[in-house]
């Protein structure tokens, strides 16, 4: 989990490799069990554990879409196919409960981003800023992650006519809604 916490914030493969090496070194130094014992479910046939092995271990809130959001637990997700099915069910649930549907195709890279977003949003005071090129799916995945966590997504409308006072007004409404009216 520590590995995942750090790599969620990294961008280059070299940085990920550095964190992997630190984790492996720390396990060797401080744990009684060897790394292949700790990651026995994903270790290679020869017992070695690589970065790719660790990346196959998924944790998240992708319980069944029928499970109420307040009952969803952050847990290991050992079956990739079941993860995809649950994620597809969450997309369908979102589409059934919102006016504007999400047209998403579920695949590995997309599911990793949704897991990352739900992991961050599911924490107390969890927040994130997504940066990327337009049309890459940031908004859709954020909407889906908020839905999975049981949150109402608020997105201010931004255009060239907006100014600083408009931003303050939008933020004031949001704080009143969340803090005083206790709307999630």
Automatic annotation (TrEMBL):
Residues 102-183 form the Dynein heavy chain AAA module D4 domain. GO terms for cellular component: dynein complex. InterPro entries: DHC, Dynein_heavy_chain_D4_dom, P-loop_NTPase. One of its GO terms (molecular function) is dynein intermediate chain binding. GO terms for biological process: microtubule-based movement. Belongs to the dynein heavy chain family. This is Dynein heavy chain AAA module D4 domain-containing protein. The lineage of its organism: Eukaryota, Metazoa, Ecdysozoa, Arthropoda, Crustacea.
């Amino acid at each position: 989990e520590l590995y995942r916490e750090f790599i969620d914030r990294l961008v280059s493969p070299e940085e990920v490799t550095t964190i992997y090496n630190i984790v492996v070194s720390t396990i060797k130094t401080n744990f009684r069990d060897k790394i292949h014992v700790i990651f026995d479910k994903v270790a290679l046939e020869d017992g070695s554990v690589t970065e790719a092995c660790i990346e196959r271990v998924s944790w998240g809130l992708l319980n069944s879409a029928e499970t109420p959001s307040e009952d969803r637990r952050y847990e290991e997700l050992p079956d990739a196919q079941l993860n995809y099915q649950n994620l597809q069910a969450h997309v369908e649930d979102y589409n059934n409960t919102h006016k504007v549907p999400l047209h998403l195709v579920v695949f590995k890279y997309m599911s990793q981003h949704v897991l990352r977003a739900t992991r961050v949003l599911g924490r107390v005071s969890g927040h994130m800023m997504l940066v990327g090129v337009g049309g890459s799916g940031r908004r859709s995945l954020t909407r889906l992650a908020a839905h999975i966590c049981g949150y109402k997504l608020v997105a201010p409308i931004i255009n060239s006519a907006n100014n600083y006072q408009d931003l303050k007004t939008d933020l004031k409404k949001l704080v009143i809604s969340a803090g005083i009216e206790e709307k999630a």
